[in-house]
């Protein structure tokens, strides 16, 4: 059943690529300020689900409402809605010829029409929030992978989105750099940001998530609080998957 009070409400979502059905009728509601972790094996549809939630992929069927607005309505201004939906990918997607601050302020100036001074003020605040106040004039190549990902998060946060979608945000990082990115995500969580995270960082999911969703073969198999999903999963498929991540 659709939840009109949800920040994100997905109902009956289906997506196929040719004959391959990747999403098989997904229903998922995310409450304001909730952190939902989506886990599951590769090929289970996790990233496709996220990409449908801002229409980087076009669903075949279903409904996606963000902050009460139906994204699949032809009358919806999808570019305006995407500014309410922060997206962080495993690749950082920073422009190499621009400084970190310029990367962060580009959308503020071009999409929101902010003046240069106001955009700089917002951008500097966003970079300070992710621990990069001293890197505003650096170029992406001068940053570590973890710093580049934090800059990408700052770029999304600067637009003041209603919800943040994270698609494997630490998978391209060396293990010693993962912690700094997770710390920023934890700070966003504590500040009340609504977040949907696709990741294999099971310890972070166990510690920080409000709810864990396990997907397999394009369907949600099980969901619940972390202590339930990790501690006493109901489905054999969930138990099998999590056994590989046992501490």
From TrEMBL:
Protein family: Belongs to the ABC transporter superfamily.
Predominant subcellular localization, coarse grouping: membrane
UniProt keyword terms in alphabetical order: Amino-acid transport, ATP-binding, Cell membrane, Membrane, Nucleotide-binding, Transport
Xref: SUPFAM superfamilies: P-loop containing nucleoside triphosphate hydrolases
ABC transporter domain sequence ranges: 8-242
Domain of life: Bacteria
Gene Ontology CC: one annotated term: plasma membrane
Protein topology in the membrane: Peripheral membrane protein
Keyword presence, Signal: no
PANTHER family to which the protein is assigned, alphabetical: AMINO ACID IMPORT ATP-BINDING PROTEIN, GLUTAMATE_ASPARTATE IMPORT ATP-BINDING PROTEIN GLTL
UniProt GO MF annotations: ABC-type amino acid transporter activity; ATP binding; ATP hydrolysis activity
InterPro entries: AAA+_ATPase, ABC_ATPase_HisP-typ, ABC_transporter-like_ATP-bd, ABC_transporter-like_CS, MetN_ABC_transporter-like, P-loop_NTPase
One Pfam family, short name: ABC_tran
Membrane recorded as keyword: yes
Subcellular location: Cell membrane
The protein's name: ABC transporter
